[in-house]
């Protein structure tokens, strides 16, 4: 809450008061996302409908698949940055959903890139009345839901003290844990709670860098994957220093290795390692994210009939016989095929110099 009060609320309120600034910010955001190779993004917006409609318009124009969430908040915020009541918040959310859908209704289905997402910021900023109404609206309109769940010690403590139970129970009671729900962070969920998410079909957005800043607990990624929970990687965008999902891949592996190094049973025969490797992180940043977002069943794989969402990554320049960007290959005489260790080298030190194209639904958005 200290960070929200000092930075996030002020920035969001400033954009809500200045649509010209909002358009500038969101246009640059779209440019940065494409530069980083991100073609699909799930975003928390602000509380004002008009600002979120600007965000949706910008993403649609840029060719990015955008799941846009107008924040719902009726308590525990700055006096000047809050919705007046649960009823008003629900009416605003309903109107936002209608207007986003109408804004793309004239397009062919495969070109309707933006969708509205119901977004109770997190339990501390939402009354039970608001949460209950959002759960009903999500069911009526088959809407996606996003929020923060069990992210930080002070948030978990606050919810227990104010509401008498954990936030996962509150979300469940109000029908907000569904197969169309994505919960960010979830660092304080134990293994039984992770199993509850799997039962509900709820996805987790794992943002390892943001967790390092705002949570005193690392996410139990290995356990979530072993439980069969849907997990996709995120950067949190504002919750760290990098918008590039490649850094999130690397950070997820680093955190898992640190967790494994702290296991008391790490030298016990048969004990389960907590690490994830580079291939698993690459999966989470691509196919895993597509599954978490509920995209087309074949999204994230190269098959006939799958949406062509892809990046073109160049590792080696055959003309100059040099590696591209930070990659050096000094002993590859007559190279004809890409080897696995070359891909791993790109995973370790590659950057946007290796990215020569980004496609969303078959259209090159990086031109």
UniProtKB/TrEMBL annotation:
<dbReference type="Pfam" id="PF01979">
    <property type="entry name" value="Amidohydro_1"/>
</dbReference>
<dbReference type="InterPro" id="IPR006680">
    <property type="entry name" value="Amidohydro-rel"/>
</dbReference>
<keyword id="KW-0479">Metal-binding</keyword>
<keyword id="KW-0862">Zinc</keyword>
<keyword id="KW-0378">Hydrolase</keyword>
<dbReference type="InterPro" id="IPR051607">
    <property type="entry name" value="Metallo-dep_hydrolases"/>
</dbReference>
<feature type="domain" description="Amidohydrolase-related">
    <location>
        <begin position="17"/>
        <end position="362"/>
    </location>
</feature>
<protein>
    <recommendedName>
        <fullName>Amidohydrolase-related domain-containing protein</fullName>
    </recommendedName>
</protein>
<dbReference type="InterPro" id="IPR011059">
    <property type="entry name" value="Metal-dep_hydrolase_composite"/>
</dbReference>
<dbReference type="InterPro" id="IPR032466">
    <property type="entry name" value="Metal_Hydrolase"/>
</dbReference>
């Amino acid at each position: 809450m200290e960070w929200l009060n000092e930075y996030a609320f002020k920035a969001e309120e400033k954009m809500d008061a200045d649509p010209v600034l909002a358009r500038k910010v969101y246009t640059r955001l779209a440019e940065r996302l494409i530069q980083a190779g991100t073609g699909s993004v799930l975003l928390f917006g602000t509380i004002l409908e008009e600002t979120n409609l600007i965000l949706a318009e910008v993403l649609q124009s840029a060719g990015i698949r955008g799941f846009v969430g107008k924040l719902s908040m009726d308590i525990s915020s700055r006096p000047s940055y809050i919705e007046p009541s649960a009823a008003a918040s629900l009416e605003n959310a309903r109107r936002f959903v209608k207007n986003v859908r109408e804004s793309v209704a004239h397009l062919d289905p495969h070109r309707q890139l933006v969708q509205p997402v119901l977004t109770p910021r997190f339990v501390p900023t939402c009354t039970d009345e608001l949460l209950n109404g959002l759960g009903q609206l999500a069911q009526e309109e088959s809407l996606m839901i996003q929020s923060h769940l069990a992210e930080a010690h002070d948030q978990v403590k606050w919810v227990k003290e104010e509401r008498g139970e954990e936030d996962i129970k509150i979300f469940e009671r109000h029908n907000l844990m569904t197969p169309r729900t994505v919960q960010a962070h979830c660092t304080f969920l134990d293994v039984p709670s992770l199993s509850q998410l799997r039962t509900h079909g709820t996805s987790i957005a794992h943002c390892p860098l943001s967790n390092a800043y705002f949570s005193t607990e690392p996410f139990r990624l290995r356990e979530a994957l072993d439980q069969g929970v849907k997990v996709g990687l995120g950067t949190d965008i504002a919750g760290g220093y990098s918008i590039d999902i490649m850094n999130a891949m690397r950070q997820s592996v680093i955190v898992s290795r640190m967790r494994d190094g702290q296991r008391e049973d790490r030298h016990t025969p048969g004990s389960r390692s907590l690490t994830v490797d580079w291939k698993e992180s690459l999966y989470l940043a691509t196919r895993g994210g597509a599954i978490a977002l509920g995209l087309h069943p074949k999204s994230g794989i190269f098959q006939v009939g799958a949406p062509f969402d892809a990046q073109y990554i160049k590792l080696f320049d055959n003309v100059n016989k040099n590696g591209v960007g930070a990659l050096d290959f000094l002993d590859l005489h007559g190279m004809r095929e890409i080897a696995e260790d070359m891909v791993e080298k790109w995973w370790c030190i590659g950057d946007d110099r290796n990215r020569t194209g980004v496609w969303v639904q078959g259209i090159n958005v990086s031109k």
